[in-house]
Structures are given as C-alpha cells and as structure tokens.
Write a structure and sequence with these properties.
Layout: E1 4-6, E2 10-14, H1 23-32, H2 49-56, E3 69-77, E4 92-93, E5 97-109, H3 125-130, E6 131-140, H4 149-163, E7 173-181, H5 185-193, E8 197-211, E9 214-229
Parallel strand pairs: 6-7
Antiparallel strand pairs: 1-2, 2-3, 3-5, 4-5, 5-6, 7-9, 8-9
C-alpha cells in the first residue's frame, strides 16, 4: 500500500506503528479521546493513554499472515496564504506546506470478533471463500466535518487498494463492507458518495454497548458493500 497518498486538499499517511510519544500515537490519541469524534465508536471515548493503546492493539498491523490491517492518518494541507497560523507541531509536506491532523481511515480484515451477518447482506458462501473481506471504519475531528474530507479520504484509500493487488496476496478478490447506524445520517451520505451499495438493514440485539451517548442493546444497522478487486481468473 502507498505510504503516502496526496489529494487536492489532503495528505494521507500510512500508519504501521504508534509508540507512546510518537507523532502517530499523538494523532490517534487525540481523535480517540475526542468525545464527538468517537461518538459512534463501539469502543467509546479513550479516557486514558491505556484506553487508546488497547484499541490500537486491534487496529494496527500485527505479525499474522492471515490478518490485514491498513490505517491512514488524514491531514489537511493548510492554506498559509489565507493567513492561517501555521501549527509548528505538524510536519511540513509538499515543499514546506504545513498540515493539520483531521482523522483516521482504517481497513481491517474480519475475525472472530467481527459482526456475523446473514448471507443476503454479505457475500454468498462460495465467493466469500476466495475473497478477502475487510471492514472500513473512519473517524474525523469536528473541525473536519461537513467539508467532504471523509468522502475524499475514503475514495483515495479505495484507489490505493486497487493500485496494490499484491498487498492482498494470496487473495485476488477484495470486498469492503461498512456498518452504519440508522441514526448516523452523515455517514450514510458518505457511503453513498463513495460508491458503496446499501445491501439492507440488520436488526442488531445484544449485550448493551455505550454508543452515541447512551447504552444501547438494539440498533438498526445499514450494511454497505463494494467489490474493490475482482479475480481475473
């Protein structure tokens, strides 16, 4: 996968590790500890560094050939000509221009902890056996909302996935799914704008989780999917 992706407004940096005190950890802890950014996260808001480290343990790459994890930190390229005060804590990019951290886009392959879905909301059993399914998730700080940054970032990551078929070896087909709460209209719109197909609604009932400011034991979940790579065989 590309280590850096540049769009017209953004720089996406591949995050493969995030040790304490590193810039990567500071970015991820900032967004994980923001109440609004983590509003729809089933992990809730990080109240400590240890909380963030626990979440990152299930997000960052690990030495397991059967696990695929891709994380991009999203930075906005600052327009210093408009009088914006440069943030010296951010690294210079693109000939000295500076950036502002906005969010995170992650792709993680399914495992035993992933939500099991009925076949009509995912891939049929036969194609699924030869296709890698990854789930996309993303978080953005409030200052990045409502400006199309999520859509721009996700489309850029999807393009990067298609440019790197060898990364997904031995799989030659790649399917991405997303799960969006019925009460989260902003993310529903992002899914539509990134070419994801709404495959239906899953009525989830289970152990209560703290989500969107309250404990919930039932949710209506929109299930989206899209084939990013298809086998040429």
């Amino acid at each position: 996968m590309d280590s850096v992706i540049v769009t017209s407004r953004l720089v996406l940096t591949l995050v493969t590790k995030a040790e304490r005190s590193s810039p990567e950890f500071e970015w991820l802890h900032e967004i994980r500890s923001d109440e609004k950014a983590s509003w729809w996260s089933i992990h809730g808001r990080s109240k400590s560094i240890e909380d963030t480290e626990k979440v990152l343990g299930g997000l960052l790459p690990k030495n397991d050939e059967n696990t695929y994890r891709v994380n991009y930190a999203v930075h906005k390229i600052l327009d210093t000509s408009s009088g914006h005060v440069e943030d010296e804590s951010q690294p210079p990019v693109l000939g000295g221009k500076r950036t502002e951290f906005l969010g995170l886009v992650a792709l993680v392959s399914l495992d035993a902890n992933s939500l099991a879905l009925p076949e009509d909301l995912t891939l049929p059993a036969s194609p699924a056996a030869s296709t890698l399914t990854v789930e996309i998730g993303y978080m953005f700080l409030p200052q990045g909302w409502g400006q199309g940054f999520a859509t721009e970032s996700i489309n850029a990551v999807f393009d990067a996935c298609r440019r790197a078929p060898s990364f997904w070896t031995p799989f030659s087909s790649l399917y991405v799914r997303a799960i969006v709460n019925d009460e989260n209209p902003a993310s529903l719109r992002v899914m539509e704008k990134t070419g994801m197909t709404n495959r239906g609604i899953y009525e989830w009932t289970g152990k209560p989780v703290f989500l969107a400011g309250r404990w919930q034991e039932h949710s209506r979940l929109h299930i989206f999917g899209r084939q990013l790579l298809e086998s040429q065989i």
